[in-house]
UniProtKB/TrEMBL annotation, chains A, B:
Presence of the UniProt keyword Iron-sulfur in the record: no
Protein name per UniProt: Histidine--tRNA ligase
Reactions catalysed: tRNA(His) + L-histidine + ATP = L-histidyl-tRNA(His) + AMP + diphosphate + H(+)
MF (Gene Ontology): ATP binding; histidine-tRNA ligase activity
Domain of life: Bacteria
Chain sites annotated for binding L-histidine: 98-100, 128, 142, 146, 298, 302-303
Family under the similarity heading: Belongs to the class-II aminoacyl-tRNA synthetase family.
CDD domains listed in its UniProt record: HisRS-like_core, HisRS_anticodon
E.C. numbers: 6.1.1.21
Lineage, opening ranks: Bacteria, Bacillati, Cyanobacteriota, Cyanophyceae, Nostocales
Organism this protein belongs to: Scytonema hofmannii PCC 7110
């Protein structure tokens, strides 16, 4: 067979692909995340990978993202159809770059078929034409939840988010993490109370958001550029540096709120934070899993209340492993209706790839196979097939070895793939309706009657 | 909030989107299919949605498919980067239109990290720029398995495919189905034995493939156009119409093989079919689930041996619900190595959408929620949150109602969403550490101590 020598068959830069053991890890993480999301009543949806370009650009004109447009390429034998196939202009379509604008479109498309508050999860691939840097992908999977109300949405939904984050990261067992909670109204209100002009507040919040990356000196510079007075900057820096236990920080905020009663928005933010924290506690989130951190701002424009980031303790350089917040004017964009929402997002592709690199997560075995029925002699194949089916019916993942190879080789390959058991049946065993069961982990080998084989394996399977 | 009046927020034509109950059905089908695939040791992989265009065109030059190319669209504030962002020519990229060429590329990319025979499943979205007709999508999910060998691959892998198909369609409970098995070598060999020239055989197989759609008269016409003699055509028509039990058809084939011993390829095909059928039987596939059907040809060029189609009995117009076959020269295309494979594909998006339309499948409930903790009085919220968490820890999917609404409304909404249970706790119940548990299906309401609530619900949950 001739090799197509000139074809560069590598993946395009930024479009990741995983080995089987890594993909199995992703499937496990997706299952774990899904289970937690569903336990809080979030229902799955999936919006198309492709939307009308004008939909994707509806909110904030695609922000800073490079969108991938799509254009039909006809096969050589159908070039004549070219005119008909080209869909451009108002028909221009592109790949989605996040799941927020598509959620808004989904709600607009199905408004009368949905129940509100509408709590959905979505774990689709999204696409951004960014230059592919270390850990930055052009295709990646985000695991988002949002709950969206019509007109109103209880703050207890904000309180559930840290409970959900904590359950997920406890379940996937990646060590200590800390959910850092803040409220945009607290920041906005405080900025306003120290005299920052209303129109500068959004960019000031953007500057605060860069604090961990660029450091305090650079933040002070940026404030200066923005025209914030040195005295105001100092007050802001002191404010976002307030440290202490959740109750200590809350007490300081309440004290500030009392002494600045004219700052309505600040006071509202403090009350919201208090409610959210009491909900988080009622939901049983461990005290060491969350904190109030007034320096958390989130870069995105649309947040209006509670905001969250999550750090992996000892690995803060990884950045936030789960973030989100409350917004008011995002989801109703296509309907002209106020639809407040709160949501979080786990950037799974990036997170997994970084945790693998840091050795915090490891790939699973390269195959789901738990048992290999080895091929001792070809004429026993009917027995091997039959035994394999019996084990499968008992819920065990089985490969029957069809290739005839020395037994040692068959054990070796099973072990290399991380398979725990080999079932060995020669003519003697077949006649006696027995099998030898070899545990490749413990090196133990026992004889088991065929009728008890499934049970014997299930008892010994590593959890 | 202003409505973006001019935006057409509908999905682009051919890009499907499902309501929550339909998406939940898809998730259930994917889980079921995955479980069966994994029970035979198939391991998950996912190749990027985007490949280099030259990779997608490597085999058969994209066939008849319209591929979607992708091109970066810069945000207005970054137009200056235009030159750098454009990636065209040898860097041209496009969305994958099937999972076969990407599998070949995956194997080429990771050859030394994979174990052979390499058995993988893949359930990714693929994209084709076809005109969107009824039931035809431009974005759809295919659930494929293939097992690929280096140089050789046992025919028992071919025998496993009908076992896998049967298990999946038995599990999803869509009624009677029939797996129709044939072998391309039998067809090729027979065509050759009646005197059809070698170079016409592929198109003749293509014509046979259209039989069910266009009928016998049209097939005879097409053979005539192809220059096949009427006498040859008659023999072919008689041949593909051979009917009977599996053993009857096999016997006829063996008889034909004996009387035409010079037709090596035919005889090889018959031997292969025999081996495959004996494997299918050893795997315990019920006799009413499969047949030999000599009119099954499969349109795709690359099949070289066993081929499969699956009909839903009584709904044959739906077309094949699972198809596949054996191929020799497909997967090694990037390596210049012979890598025989055998695989099947379930076109899940199309299948599900057609089964929903035909009423053979129904959407699931719109939410995974099993229990609503209703909101009787706001000041008991700490109790509601605590009870909800206890139920979740027991593996139950729970929504706490944060909105204060009349109880009747709360029951109504729960029922509308298909939620089975309401937990009702007023101040009396809270004081007595009890709850009222209302089953919305049976209308039964009982009192349960809070400590037994999870158990009581789990016992009563519909399976």
């Amino acid at each position: 067979m001739a090799k197509s020598e000139k074809i560069n068959f590598s993946t395009p830069s930024g479009f990741p692909e995983f080995l089987p053991g890594e993909k199995r890890l992703e499937v496990y993480l997706l299952d774990t995340i899904r289970k937690v999301y569903e336990s809080y009543g979030f229902t799955p949806i999936e919006t198309p990978a492709v939307e009308r370009l004008e939909v994707l650009q509806a909110k904030g004109n695609q922000g800073d993202n490079i969108i991938y447009g799509i254009n039909p390429i006809l096969p050589p034998n159908r070039q004549a159809e070219k005119d008909k196939a080209g869909e451009t202009g108002s028909e221009a379509r592109a790949l989605k770059f996040d799941q927020t604008v598509p959620l808004a479109a989904y709600i607009a498309r199905h408004l009368n078929d949905l129940s509100f508050p509408f709590a959905r999860y979505q774990m689709d691939l999204v696409f951004r034409g960014e230059r592919a840097k270390d850990g930055r992908f052009r295709q990646f999977r985000q695991c988002d939840i949002d709950v969206v109300g019509r007109r109103e949405l209880s703050l207890f939904y904000d309180a559930q988010m840290p409970a959900i984050i904590a359950e997920i990261f406890d379940a996937i067992n990646i060590g200590d993490f800390l959910i850092r909670i803040n409220n945009r109204k607290v920041l906005t209100g405080f900025f306003s109370s120290v005299g920052v002009e209303a129109e500068k507040i959004k960019s000031c919040i953007g500057i605060i958001d860069t604090l961990e990356k660029v450091g305090e000196a650079k933040v002070i510079q940026e404030f200066e550029k923005e025209g914030v007075l040195a005295e105001q900057t100092q007050k802001i820096i002191d404010f976002i540096n307030i440290k202490g236990s959740v109750d200590e920080v809350l007490d300081k905020l309440k004290y500030l709120a009392q002494s600045a009663q004219e700052a309505e928005i600040f006071n509202l933010g403090v009350t919201e934070l208090e409610t959210v924290i009491s909900g988080v506690r009622n939901l049983g989130v461990a005290e060491n899993r969350f904190c109030l951190d007034l320096s958390i701002a989130r870069g995105l424009d649309y947040y209006t209340g509670t905001v969250y980031e999550t750090s992996l303790v000892g690995h803060e350089a990884l950045g936030s492993i789960c973030s989100g917040g409350r917004y008011e004017e995002l989801v109703g964009v296509f309907l002209g209706e106020k639809m407040p929402g709160v949501g979080i997002s786990i950037g799974l592709t990036r997170l997994m790839s970084r945790l693998l690199k840091a050795g915090i997560l490891n790939p699973l075995a390269a195959t789901p196979t738990q048992v290999i029925v080895v091929n001792v002699q070809e004429d026993l194949m009917p027995v091997y097939l039959n035994v394999s089916q019996t084990l499968r019916k008992a819920g065990i993942n089985v490969v029957t070895n069809f290739e005839q190879r020395p037994l040692g080789k068959q054990f070796q390959q099973a072990e290399k793939q991380g398979i725990q058991f080999c079932v060995i049946i020669g003519s003697e065993e077949a006649a006696a309706q027995k099998a030898a069961l070899k545990d490749l982990k413990t090196r133990e080998q026992i004889e088991v009657p065929l009728e008890n084989l499934a049970e014997a394996i299930k008892q010994r399977l590593a959890p």
